[in-house]
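Record type: monomer structure entry
Structure origin: computed from sequence
Chain ID: A
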Amino acid sequence: MARKPAEQTVHREEIVRAAAEVFHHKGYRGATMSDIAATVNLTAGSLYHHFPSKEELLIAVLDAGMTQIIAATQAIVQSDAPPADKLRAIARAHISGIITHHHIAVAVIFESRALLEKPGVRAPYVRQRDTLERLYRQVVEEGIAAGAFRALDVGIFVKAFFGALNWVSVWYREDGRLSEREIADEIANTFLAALTKV
């Protein structure tokens, strides 16, 4: 099949999804611009017309994943729901995002390390990651302040919760025993039990 020249319409989102898929299967270091270009039926030269480097593509993939989950989480945090309901809703939104955008989620979780080695591009990713973590912390701190949750080390709790949700991307199977929502609720219930005052 003939490859598309650069001036033909290829949506940025399509290229980002293709890059995420290639990074998922080959890893950032193993992936080439030619691999990504072939996935969207472009020549490698045409791909460089859209993204000047593989690094820029990884940044775009990470940004797409983080932007989506931050927006969903902000809406939950700003709602009037009780803290326990917010935590459950966060788990559902996080896992839904992982499953719906699986390749992007896997790239965010596993390939972000490639960026963290590059000072020039590290800062934007770390800012987004910290923004998301602050939103999670806000819900837990709100619950503690209201007396709904017991006092604990919020930073450790949030990192453990975040890690449990992210790891679903590794073991989730569409034909598995539990649905996406059931998995989210099981994880949320486990962590809510740890927050219950004794």
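Annotation 1: The chain has nine helices and no strands.
Annotation 2: The radius of gyration is 19 Å.
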